[in-house]
Amino acid sequence: MSGKRSISKAISHSESQHELKAKYTTEIKSLKSNIKTLKREATLAQKASSADKIKILSLKAKVRELEGKLDDLKLEQVLHNSNVVEGLLEEPVQINSSDSKEIDSLRLELNRANEDLSSKEHIIECIEKGIESLNIDSPLLPMNELSQLDPEGTLFILNLSSKIISIGDAEAVSLPATVPIIKKAMEYMEKK
């Protein structure tokens, strides 16, 4: 009778081990998928940030060019006015106000682009921190009473206190510990 109970316990234990392994394998796959998604989003955000940086540099160059034109026009007006005073010319030249308005418009656009760039860099930083927190590089935990070999002979460790699951060479933090990080990054991105 005791032998049948032992076999029954062993079968029950084996089934529960398979269920746990399936559960954690699913969680590991889900985490890996989340990591890939976050890495893709980070790459896309970095590409967008690079495009914004190029646009900002282009706008800065255009602002400098227009400021140079404005300085030239001011100098031309001063020279023209001095010639009028000396009697060489009859009427003063006025600076074209459209150049000044264009400079102001470009400065405003440049400020907006700088703010957008700063915002995107902050989003990238948040995403990268989320990715870093999801990457698991910690060594295997020491053997304890919950450590066992699964039917394939792979070491299976479930350390309840740290919530780190290890199956063979793969390790993952249990999902409830990582969800807030992903959720915060996504909420921040939605605000922007």
The main sheet comes to:
4 strands, antiparallel
Assembly state: single chain
Unreliable residue stretches: 137-149, 153-163, 173-179
Distance between the termini: 67 Å
Radius of gyration: 33 Å
Q: What do the pLDDT scores average to?
A: 70
| Number of helical regions | 3
User: What's the overall geometry?
Assistant: rod-shaped
Quickly give the structural class: alpha+beta
Counted up, domains total 1
Give the SSE order as H and E letters.
HHEEEEH
Give, in spatial order, the strands making up the sheet with the most strands: 1-2-3-4
For the secondary structure, the number of strands is 4
Helix share, percent: over 70%
Give the amount of beta strand, in percent: 5-15%
Secondary structure layout plus pairing:
Elements: H1 2-85, H2 97-134, E1 148-149, E2 155-159, E3 164-167, E4 170-173, H3 175-191
Antiparallel strand pairs: 1-2, 2-3, 3-4
Helix pairs in contact: 1-2, 2-3
Molecular structure report:
The structure is a single chain. The protein is an alpha+beta fold. The protein has one domain. The protein is built from three helices and four strands. A four-stranded antiparallel beta sheet has the order 1-2-3-4. Helix 1 runs antiparallel to helix 2. The protein is rod-shaped and about 125 Å long. The chain starts with a helix and ends with a helix. Keywords: Coiled coil.
